[in-house]
Amino acid sequence: MKGRDIISAFDFTREEFMRLFNEAKICERERNLRIAEDKMAITVFLEPSTRTRLSFTAAMLKIGGKVMDFGSIEASALMKGESFEDTIKMIDGYDPDVIIIRHKVEGSAKMAADIAENPVINGGDGMHEHPTQALLDLYTMYKTFGKIDGLRIALLGDLKHGRTLSSLSYALSIFNNVKLYCIAPPILQMRPEVIEKIKDKMPCKFYNSLDELDEEIDVLYVTRVQKERFTDLQEYERVKNSYIVTPSLLSKLKKIPIVMHPLPRVNEITTDVDTMPQAKYFEQATNGMYIRMALLAEVMGLRIKSD
Ligand code: NCD
Predict the structure, then answer these.
(1) Element (H or E) spanning 110, and its range?
(2) Whole-angstrom Cα distance, residue 156 to residue 210?
(3) Which of 53, 130, 261, 280 is labelled catalytic?
(4) For 83-114, what is each residue's pLDDT tens digit?
């Protein structure tokens, strides 16, 4: 994967997913690998981020590399009117080995990749995609079940605006016999262009609420209502409490699934779910660091091997 831009979850083949999972396992076991000592990453997060920025930073440090952070958009020359193109050209000129970028505009990561000579990893572009979140989501499922093939996965929440959900659906569609259940209030259902890309590859069923689900599932993937993507805040107010996962709601399901969430959580999973053995969301965030260690090494052409 040396030198490759990572823009979409469709950028990975099944074999590459499996290779990354195995390398992430080595990273998890070894914890620190000194393989990137002469490498530098630049992180450019022009939208709020906690986990993605921090876990990419931790991942780079743990493989022995260095990280330079662009800082906040407010403190940058973008506020003086510098164009996105010029900013990327300038960053690329410092010759980083990889650039990790997040931006509120859909397609911005692709645009940056077209400008930059060095590899660009998409850390989230608007509501479009978040491919490395899909990587850590699949890695968490793989660690739990030992496979991705055949899993039954329900997505619950703001499926319309959530970029983690489009990338996750694309990634799952590469595997065999996965069944997808999309559960959302009608105005938050998955966007047609996302459904279009997966519908011939994987069976998808649509529901308005979790109580309607009549089949056993292995994974319940919950997301927050993406307030910042609403143009009409009254609409946000109407849907913001429309689903809340509690232990009693989970116990009504045919089988209690594992519960995943990309985080941050607002109120859609109550904190008393956290102590259930099925709650995987904090482990999921930790897995993000290990799989990003593996991905960074791959993109920079470095070999991960156990000592
Ligand atoms: C997600 C994002 O930024 O899309 N967060 C993350 O990267 N873990 C999900 C969200 O913001 O709801």
Answers:
(1) helix 108-115
(2) 8
(3) 130
(4) 999 999 999 999 999 999 999 999 999 999 99
Specify which residues 153 forms β-bridges with: 180, 219
Residue with tokens 């030992």: 146
The DSSP secondary-structure symbol of 120 reads E
- Quote the tokens at residue 99: 């650039």
Query: What is the identity of the amino acid at 77?
Result: A
CA distance 260 to 238: 24
Q: Tens of pLDDT along 283-295?
A: 999 999 999 999 9
- Cα angle vertex 141, ends 4, 1, to 5°? 10
**AA letter at 215:** E
Q: With cut-offs at 50, 70 and 90, classify the pLDDT of residue 307.
A: low
Contact by Cβ (8 Å): 166, 173: no
- Is 62 close to ligand 1, i.e. is its CB under 6 Å away? no
All residues at 6 or more sequence positions from 124 whose CB lies less than 8 Å from its CB, including other chains:
47, 49, 52, 102, 103, 130, 133, 163
51 catalytic? Reply is yes
Say whether pTM exceeds 0.85.
Answer: yes
Q: Which residue among 4, 19, 51, 152 is the active-site one? A: 51
